[in-house]
């Protein structure tokens, strides 16, 4: 059965800010407490969505989450009116206020893990909201993520949306950022690759020493069970602990796959040869051959890959059978990466086109093109069954640009998070957005 891949990009919210909350994410940490530009961030993201949609790629969006998270603030003892809660949090614990205002839901690669109907036992597309329990500022996201996914994919004949796994360290789950699907084509059965950083119940297993491993093997196995995946077409691969300690906090910062191609760094996996062997054997079962594209450390050091977010790119199938690599502008500014990409496109690989975007507002907060999108392969019937109001069109693009221009600030300083007017502005903006997208009741204000 034929299917098309849709990329659901996170629409950047009106309170986009740089709080530097993500230990292990070098870009996020290096820009802590800088002034941000929410309006520019949203417009950069919308420009990317529009450009890809105009090229014929399946493009949709996931709406931003409500901020600040008053449920978090009230659950830990801040009381009174909304303005009083903000004032108390700003005085007593500014870092917790920053957590409540986190901009991280824009990175929808962490919203959920997705398995298309061609892979699941019941023939439905399955979503499991990621618990993101490694970080306080993200640990509450799964509630609204599941709510939004159920609003968009509400037809239970075609879709199943699962709640997040238990919020304990044993089931640390970061969603699609550590999950890749390889296949002959999007409509046929594929191989689902789960990359994990550590094993909870094996103390002897290797693990990073400096930065946390956010995805566990146990979480990956649980998601595969929930989705009804075939054991023979499911592969579990450990991320290289040393590369996590170099700032590669998710697999999608060091590897990206699409169709039968795997674009990855030499140091991505704990056992490179073993990982490739597992994938080749599994893909043989779905009549596909693995096409690995390996980037050697000698050509692109890990530090350069992290600085440029070379692998946090989108690898998209084109109508002519070739692939385009969607990269941030930073890839052209890191000499080793720019030189490598010039050779890659000219060298006859499956990737024959580079598409550049200026996503600096997102990049400064630690997320590139791949972080901004959740991949969902849908048949024609499934695409028709999902909510159409989130599918990017030229008309929707212009409507959303006008909405951003109306509601977003062009500068947000860390001190602004204590301003009760900002919370009111966000609330008003999201109320209007829910009407624009045709999703009444999306937010639990």
UniProtKB/TrEMBL annotation:
Binding sites annotated in the UniProt record for substrate: 19-28, 110, 137-138, 214, 252, 365
Alphabetized UniProt keyword annotations: Arginine metabolism, Hydrolase
Pathway entry: Amino-acid degradation; L-arginine degradation via AST pathway; L-glutamate and succinate from L-arginine: step 2/5
GO MF annotation terms: N-succinylarginine dihydrolase activity
Residues forming the catalytic site: 174, 250, 371
Principal EC category: hydrolase
InterPro entries recorded: AstB_sf, SuccinylArg_d-Hdrlase_AstB
Known catalytic reactions: N(2)-succinyl-L-arginine + 2 H2O + 2 H(+) = N(2)-succinyl-L-ornithine + 2 NH4(+) + CO2
HAMAP family listed in its UniProt record: AstB (MF_01172)
Protein family membership: Belongs to the succinylarginine dihydrolase family.
Quaternary structure and interacting proteins, as annotated: Homodimer.
Protein name: N-succinylarginine dihydrolase
Organism: Duganella margarita
